[in-house]
Amino acid sequence: MSDLASRITKPDAAPAAADSEAKPAQTAPAADNPADGAGPGLVESNYDVEVKLSDLQNDAQNPLYSVSAFEDLGLKQQIIEGLLALNFKKPSKIQERALPLMLADPPRNMIAQSQSGTGKTAAFVVTILSRVDFEQPHTPQALALAPSRELARQIQGVIQSIGQFCTNLNVEAAIPGSISRETGVRANVVVGTPGTVMDLIRRKQFDVSNLKVLVIDEADNMLDQQGLGEQCVRVKNMLPKSIQTLLFSATFPDNVMKYAERFAPNANQMRLRQQELTVAGISQMYMDCPSAQDKYDVLCKLYGLMTIGSSVIFVKTRESANEIQRRMEADGHRVAALHGAHEGQSRDALLDDFRSGKSKVLITTNVLARGIDVSSVSMVINYDIPMKGMGDREPDAETYLHRIGRTGRFGRVGVSISFVYDRKSYQALSDIANHYGIDLVQLSPDDWDTTEKKVQDVIKSSRARPDYAPNALDS
């Protein structure tokens, strides 16, 4: 167990050197209608963006440049008004580097990797709105694909928010049960899941002949996962060959990147440096539970801290989510469980309750690990360490990063707590910590007063920071 021990920040120790060099992000005000990229004024980011230009972009007539104001992009006035209405004062790092390239004519493909909460959704939404001819309100011109109905609905909301002043903007969600068989798709912007979009095109209920831009969000998952990957390829093969393809994700493993480069040929590329991948505003902690059975008791002890804001508990299976919900409710705690076994409208209602604060603790599987943004989430608990491969043979570092990215967004404070209880879970978390260079703070189930103080210090602090040192946090 020495690997994980080497990544632990002791309570009385100074932060690791890598952390001491990082500047804490400024806290952003709460958003009225939060969504990834459509929230409050963006914080000053301290991460670096690596840019790899396509062969086309190496042309001296098309030099790379960035912008410091949305007005410099030549956007339609309605789009600028929508951004200002959402308190976007200036572009984030990923936006200021990506938007000039994505908006250039002739259109060029893009593969962009940027951590959660940095405005990547707004970047591709602005591109979508810039490509649409609003004089054709019922002609589909832009398509965005997402891995889940929840994320598709969220992207739909972001497009409607940023495009609120765009006359004749129609956005439809191509998810199960939402598109009328009588009318088919009657919108100029479509957001959907690959399977439903593929079926609509096959049934000739979705005319794709005028599509100008294809966005694939959470592209690492969409292109790597066998079922979704095949569906994405089939959808793309049905679209115009000249379509601009934009791939976005917080992570791009090397094997997926190679495939992405074939999926979006001659693409400009943007990637965060490896050391910048972990979400900057999150204090990452772990709890060494005595046994698997003790994990539940520790979880219940954390309940009071979970409800300071909102919390997401990630578990491995639907059955585990249901069982933990049953036990916690029997013990008098108010929780909800959301996973793929729920019907679509039930899932929408559960997520709406969580967004509104009616429900404050949500137990879920990886269905919510990607892209979903609820501004009040202050804690993520990895009840089960994410694993991948047949028989859960290796830790899933990418899913860990996506999970903890549900909190600490846009510079807000956040805590992630991962439960370990045996050598396998301990080693898996150790491997993830070493992969990202994370300094994990150990929490003790035997000293609850100290544990509560550590977590409360972070949640109640006035600014986010990734390290933890007692008496160093603003309260």
Automatic annotation (TrEMBL):
Residues 11-37 have a biased composition (Low complexity). Residues 68-96 form the DEAD-box RNA helicase Q domain. Pfam families: DEAD, Helicase_C. Residues 1-43 are annotated as: Disordered. The keyword Membrane does not apply. Its EC number is 3.6.4.13. Belongs to the DEAD box helicase family. DDX19/DBP5 subfamily. This is RNA helicase. It comes from Thyridium curvatum. The lineage of its organism: Eukaryota, Fungi, Dikarya, Ascomycota, Pezizomycotina.
